[in-house]
Design goal:
By secondary structure, this protein is mainly alpha-helical. The chain has helices at about 5-20, 35-40, 45-65, 70-85, 90-100, 105-115, 120-140, 145-165, 175-180, 185-230, 235-255. It contains eleven helices and no strands. Helix 5 crosses helix 11 (about 235-255) and helix 8 (about 145-165) packs antiparallel against helix 11.
């Protein structure tokens, strides 16, 4: 086996690990991944997001061709992305909202975030997330704009996650974030470059830069808030970051 083939095989395995980590697609569910592999695979998170966006785009195109109005088509599209990810990020958003909003101490916040039950803060956060995403997609001018926005938002939102993983240590000594580990700096940089390139291609350069700046602000605010609340980050916080980032890119696409 040549060195080039070995390098390509390693990158292919990391891409598989990123898809397993970011989605719930049954084709790759049996692929075993260790925590260190997830950290190394962080560069490919935006590619996994691109795949989720593509699934949503196909569903929207089929709904549009069937003659469905914009709102039902957008709702079915978001539902398809929820199925593709197993509501992984939505669960993180709800848990983070409940924990940050309902707990008084760091320990209480972490306990609430681990509780499988959902509270008022979590319900409100989920409703707002779904309404904003469906509404943004339904408000875009035409099917082509929806397809590009889906690809850009899902890829860029996953590109933001490695940055937070590098900036903050895990808040727990167990759990998804702890097992994933902190990605190397070069993986975070590659993820950011891939995410920006997809933004620039899908939304054009000006909107791509605007989305990039907005995402950087969201990552910084999430890092600041998570540090104040729980002195680190968790898998739930990463899910909340993905949701906020996805919504931000969709809103930029409306401009």
């Amino acid at each position: 086996m040549t060195l080039a083939n070995s390098w390509l095989e390693d990158r292919a395995e990391e891409l598989k690990a990123s898809i397993v980590f970011c989605t719930r697609l049954p084709l790759l569910r049996a692929t075993p991944i260790a925590g260190g592999a997830i950290a190394k695979a962080a560069w490919a998170f935006p590619i996994a997001g691109l795949l989720v966006g593509l699934i949503g785009a196909v569903v929207y195109a089929l709904a549009h061709r069937a003659g469905l109005p914009a709102w039902p088509a957008a709702a079915l599209t978001v539902a398809a992305t929820l199925l593709a990810t197993g509501c992984l990020h939505e669960d993180g958003l709800a848990d983070t909202a409940d924990g940050f909003g309902g707990g008084k101490t760091r320990e209480q916040k972490l306990d609430i975030m681990r509780d499988s039950r959902i509270g008022v803060y979590g319900v409100c956060a989920l409703v707002m997330s779904l309404v904003l995403r469906v509404g943004a997609l339904a408000s875009l001018p035409g099917a082509h704009a929806v397809v590009w926005a889906l690809l850009a938002s899902h890829a860029a939102a996953r590109a933001a996650m490695p940055a937070l993983m590098l900036m903050l240590p895990p808040a727990r000594s167990d759990g998804l974030s702890f097992e994933a580990g902190r990605p190397p700096g070069e993986a975070v940089l590659v993820a950011a470059v891939i995410g920006f390139l997809i933004l620039a291609i899908c939304l054009h350069l000006g909107h791509g830069f605007l989305a990039l700046i907005l995402l950087a602000v969201i990552v910084a605010l999430t890092a600041w808030l998570s540090t104040r609340q729980i002195e680190g980050q968790t898998g739930d916080v990463l899910g909340a970051l993905e949701q906020a980032s996805e919504i931000a890119v969709l809103l930029v696409a409306l401009g």
